[in-house]
Specification:
Alpha-Beta Plaits, nine-stranded mixed sheet
Amino acid sequence: MLLHGWARQPGVPTVEGTLRVGIARHGIARSADDASLEVSSRTDRGVSAVGNVLAISSDLSGRTLLRSLNGISRGVFFSAAIPCPEGFRVRRALRRTYHYFEPARGHDVARWQSAARLFSGMLDVRSLGRGLDPHSPVWRTVESVRVEDVGGGLLRIETRAPSYVWGMVRKIVGALREVDAGRLTPSRLAGALSGRERLTLPLAEPERLLLWDVDLGLAWEHRWTGPNRHQARYWEEGREALSVRDRVLASLSDREASPPAARA
């Protein structure tokens, strides 16, 4: 069975690890090994997933399986399921889309957009990954990298590609920052992407990154009708925490803006 899900798990090493622990406890399979759990895309700690896909073997029907999986952790949601043939490889996606959100203040949006257009076609991604051989080109096809001002003081960097190397999206953002700051020229970046040299690029923060979608070219059959009460409470607590944080930050900002005499 293939399942479409999304998650935000602060304090948990991996969503996959959470699922492996919960599979036997919730009667989905005798063990995680029996379930043959396979996740389409793995993310670094701190990265959130809005849309990911996993394959799992279970005797439960689609709707029952969705209900059981949505009971494992209130921070992990499964939205849809579809039966798949034995041997189907969930990692062979047509496309994976990531969104990264960057504060717009102080950035030249046009410069970001111009540099982003260099990330298209067959690229040497040695400079965009971790743990790769620095002496040999590593080729990956990238459909596009787009930068858009989405309002609210934020830029959204969207990357679309069939597959990525470890840390690739965060390195792309790091490259765009370097070009914007004048520490990296577009021509040198283009040379690295064409295989002429390898760059040492900074790794952007993981907390701003979202795995937005994994496209397998499928029409999902079973849909989750939740959230259940635990998931609903999770979102309520999240909204409350954000509201409190915004109020605290606003209070600190107001205090710093006040003249010393007014604080006495």
